[in-house]
Amino acid sequence: MAFDEVEAELRRHPKIRDCVVTEVRIDRSRDMVVAYVETTERIEPAEVRDFLTSPRLRISDVPRAVIRVNKLPRTKSGRIDRESLPQPPVQPGRLAGLKVPGNLYGDSTFWALILFPTVIFGLLAYLMTDVIWPGSTDLSIVPQPYAFLFNVLYIIECLAFGLGIGFLIMGRKPLLRVGRPRGLTTLTHLAIVWLLISWWLQDNSYRLTAKTDWNSQAWLVYVFNVTLMGAAAVVAVFATRNRLRD
C-alpha cells in the first residue's frame, strides 16, 4: 500500500488534523514505517491503533509506530519537511505507546484467551457424547490398537468442538483486522466455526445411522457434507479476495 493511502485513512479520524507517513532508518539494516500525526486534541495511541486496524487497512499496512507532534514541520513553500521530523526511539512495535497488533496466528494473547473455552467446551463435549448419542463411543468389540486410535480421534473431535466455540467468541476481531469486507468476514467467521465444531456432531451422528437408512443418510449429507463444502468455499474466497478499497 502507498503511504498516501494510509495518510488518507488517518485524516478520516476526527481528531487528526494532518499527518505524514514515512519510512525512517532506525539502524544500518532496518527501516521502519512511522506515522506522524498533528491532532486537534489529545489522542491515545490505542485509539489510533483501533482506527487503523479497521477493515480499511490490513495489519501489514499499519505503520509500525505513531508519533504525535504539536505541529508538523514545513518548508518555506508549505510542504512537510520530512528531514525535520523527529527520530523515533528504536523500539519497534511500542513507539509512542502504540503496540501494533500481531497477525491472526501470531498473537499470543489471542491464543491464550481462546485456550480456556477450548479446554472447557472440549471437556463438556467429551462428557456429553454418550449422553446425547448413547453407544456412539462404545469400543468394547474393537481390538487394540484400533480402540486406542479411535479414542484419540474422539478426544481430537471434542477439542475441535471446543476450539470452534472459542473461535466463535474470540475470532471476529482478528478476522476484521485482515481487511476484508464485513459481510465476507462474518461469513468466514461462521464458516470457520462450523468447520471446527461440526466434526463432533457429524461423526457421532453417522456412527449411529444404519447404512441403508436412506432418509437419515440424506439428511446427514445435506446438513453436514454440503454445508462443510460451502464453508470451505467461503474461507477460500476470504483468503484470496483483494482487500476492500474505498
UniProtKB/TrEMBL annotation:
The chain crosses the membrane at residues 109-128, 148-171, 183-201, 221-240. Gene3D superfamilies: 3.30.300.30. SUPFAM superfamilies: Acetyl-CoA synthetase-like. Residues 5-78 form the AMP-binding enzyme C-terminal domain. The keyword Membrane applies. Keywords: Membrane, Transmembrane, Transmembrane helix. The keyword NADP does not apply. InterPro entries: AMP-bd_C, AMP-bd_C_sf, ATP-dep_AMP-bd_enzyme. This is AMP-binding enzyme C-terminal domain-containing protein.
